[in-house]
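Help! Submission page says 'invalid entity' but I think these are all valid:
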Amino acid sequence: MNNSYNHSLSANSKLTQISANRCFDGEQHYYSHQSSATKTQMTFSIYLPDEALAGHRCPAVLYLSGLTCNADNVTHKAHFQKKCSELGMIFIAPDTSPRSSEDNDVPNDERYFVGQGASYYVDATQAPWAENFNMQSYIVDELYDLLRSEFSIDSIGVTGHSMGGHGALLLGFKFPSKFISVSALSPVCSASESAWGQAAYTEYFGDDDDLKSQADAAKTIEAVGQQYSMILVDQGAADNFLAEGQLQTAKLQDACEKAKQPLTLRYQAGHDHSYYFIQSVIDDHIEHHWRMAQLN
Amino acid sequence: MNNSYNHSLSANSKLTQISANRCFDGEQHYYSHQSSATKTQMTFSIYLPDEALAGHRCPAVLYLSGLTCNADNVTHKAHFQKKCSELGMIFIAPDTSPRSSEDNDVPNDERYFVGQGASYYVDATQAPWAENFNMQSYIVDELYDLLRSEFSIDSIGVTGHSMGGHGALLLGFKFPSKFISVSALSPVCSASESAWGQAAYTEYFGDDDDLKSQADAAKTIEAVGQQYSMILVDQGAADNFLAEGQLQTAKLQDACEKAKQPLTLRYQAGHDHSYYFIQSVIDDHIEHHWRMAQLN
């Protein structure tokens, strides 16, 4: 662990610093903490530009990752640090679910789209998931408050990829007072109508169709109407999951039309579902959240 | 595997494409091939901007990775793709050594700085290493010729990190007719006088001190004199391996002075030895190689 890193946690902080590395004009940090929402240790990464390290309040963007990922994938592969350094933007990447550990036996499933790595950022109501799989409460209450108390954050926007793009759209429209801006990359647009999401929601919500609809991004947007002056969504045109029907981008477009929610939806020729796509458009998303933060 | 990727290999090509992903205005590819130099399958990554995919000859930079790495680390974590896309630059990342496989039992060592992942880009003369550990010949002859025959390459510069920074300096000054430009990130500057390199060279060269000196970057620069109008080296000032004496940056500075080799050496405050450092300066290295290619 290096000695030149500058952020001081509060007295009696719940956070433990795992690592800190200088990166452009800022620092990439990792923290862990015991979560009351998930009853597990949770880990997140946070990029702090020098402005934030110096105590200046900066806009932040919360990035929700996709199936199978943890905080590492986006932190290593999305290439967000340079733009965040240039603009003075904080970038936060939580894990995608609670995880088993030596002290903690968290439920799981053999399918990569259910269980650990596949929370869909909802609060499960069914056993055995309800005990730990409370990622909505984790993100919008526990982590949200912890970030605001421990770091020099002005406003928070939300974005994400694939399952995390669904999470960004869902949480952004369910909790518009918490988030100043919303964007998504290759989002699952309607979890309750995709094969991945149907499998997960049957586990997490049983046969309660109301709960499944309330945990569906496109249906939530249609139900609550316009919340943001503009949302930005990028989708690779050569994404095999789009072709397979997991993403259903047209449902998002339809929901935004009905909700009169302005949407910038871009199909990127040749691009697939990978982090090679994410890195190709992430700067535009950071700039979107930056602009929205400046307008408020 | 996606279907929208454009590069055609030659008839009877020795290369097998492993993957291809659209990334910015270009494609990130991986290839494998049977190497005659190492007698193993070797894998490399190559970023091809659209100019190269369209058949326009582009400058290329060959990046030699550090201890324990393979082609993935730099390809995922160094964030070179955006700048290469903007400039129309090809970026090639070979593996750091031959590897064992199901068909092939390559020598190894328990120490992370000897054996697989730690070739130092030299041709070993001692058993059991001499059979496979011929990475100098692999890089400057076999891979070099293969790249030129299979891709639309104009000139080739060489760079690298840590052990690979040593490789870039060593091969750049031993084979100046092959490379148009040289740079290095956090290089081991004098392998024959670092603890890592001494352990490796004792295995690869036995007690032949002449061979060890001929495989030493600083000594080679001093012996052959100026070869490039300028070389660029970045070093993190908070790099623990610098403090431990593995890198010996002062020996490079001294060798360049004696050789009258112009050197831009930058110490970057707060930065360590990680890919968070590499990504923070890689654009400057790509631009250095780009400028040198334009001058020729």
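Support: the input was valid. A stray whitespace character was the problem, and the output above is from the cleaned input. Chain B has a mean pLDDT of 96.
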